[in-house]
Records
---
Amino acid sequence: MRTIQMTLDEELIEQVDFLVKENKTTRSAFTREALTRTIKYYQQLKLEKKQQQGYLKYAVSNDEFGDWENEQDWGQE
């Protein structure tokens, strides 16, 4: 692991310190978790955008899933 230096607003530090104390962790652990979650979030957004572009490029036709309509089961009788 490497040590880095960061500059943060005082209000943000106070909020982090409150959560760190409440969750019995450290600033470093809290920051690692927050960064990891944020990276995963942006990776997911990137995948969703790629999928959206694919559907725009190769749009679903009106009858593409027609063969499966009779197979649907909504659990209601």
---
Amino acid sequence: MAELIVMVCLLATPEKCQEFRVPDAGAGDVVTCIRAAAVKSDEWQEVNDKYFIIGWRCATNSKAPLAPSAQ
């Protein structure tokens, strides 16, 4: 299973960036993940406005932590 990984930075401390796995944005394969990645990353960004996305990728077996949810 391929997972959407986003590189995000906190708005308050933009020099501190980290990769996270986006929950519920996985796909059966990397190609399908890539096709949906822009929409899924935008959806996550809309509800997590403390962060800004500087990049994304799709990967299998990622060790990235699960992305924080909006609080």
---
Amino acid sequence: MKVVSGMIRAMKFLPDVISFSLGLILVLVLSAAPLSHALVVDALYDQEIPVQGQGDAERLRAYREALTAVILKITGEERWLRNGAVERAVREAQNYVQEVSYRSSGGASSQTYISIRFDQELVNSMLGSAGIPVWDRNRPSVLLWLSVQSADGQRELLGSDSDHPILALIREFSQVRGVPILIPLLDVEDRRSLPADVAWSLDEAAIRRASARYGADSVLSGRVLTSPVGDLVGLWQFLFRDRVEIFDSLESDLAAYMQSALNRVTAQLATHFAINLATRPAQEQVTLRVEGVDNITAYVNLLAYIRDLAVVENVSTSLLDGSNIELDVTLVGSTYLFTEFITLGRDLIPGELTNPQEVQGNILHYRWVR
């Protein structure tokens, strides 16, 4: 099972995706509704670092910095950087390097950058041996509703066109961590379904209704106010599946304020979807019945899609019946996690069961809609 490196493959539902260096997804400006936004984030094992020249010492420093950033992207949690095996790997980062190139930004203030690609199998093997799960490139999106209140009491609900420094911090986090973060349009429809005062109150029902048009996998809503002494005080609500989590935050710095909240939800998503590549659970077998596979292109795309899921070890065709196909799938995780990854992709939607009891026999019914 491999996590294939390359460029971002934007889903067909995303006409306007803003992409940045190394093909990582940053904040997505939404231009149509309804949309679905689970995305494939590639180049997870690539990193670009600014350097002062091409000397050996500077190159080794860049290797260590780059591997630290890569491990953070593919584990999703900062705590793993303090693991002994990871610390040793970072000290010997040159042993994991697969490819290196340099570029210059040009201009009067020219800056040299080193682009480093690490060996995916070596890095994954190191993490697996240390019992550290790896977060695959199929990543859930986070829709972010954020209300800010200045020291003079003025409140603002931020949208994709807002001119606020906090959006630059969100973009930076999204790039560094490889997390698709969606900022609402804040158009007439958004303002009607989620007025500023309702957004500030973190009304769960109203936020769910306003978020439905974006089809995001999770929703983070928050409010932050600046106290008279300059502290940032806020409250957050995170909606993921059927879970609701409320947590507060107090920081003196805007970057630390956003980092704290985004770190928290990123760690939760990574914990849900990451897989330990070394100590895998016992393999499960599941039969996948798919309708709507009505041509050879759809058949090839379906097989490629299923094989590319991190939880899938092997897939084979057991039945072809017109536009219906039956696949035997071997999993390295649970059937539940398999359905979670399918939910992220949006190319398969649940189909109707002819016999509800078939679910108990690990038979899943879906329709191919790509």
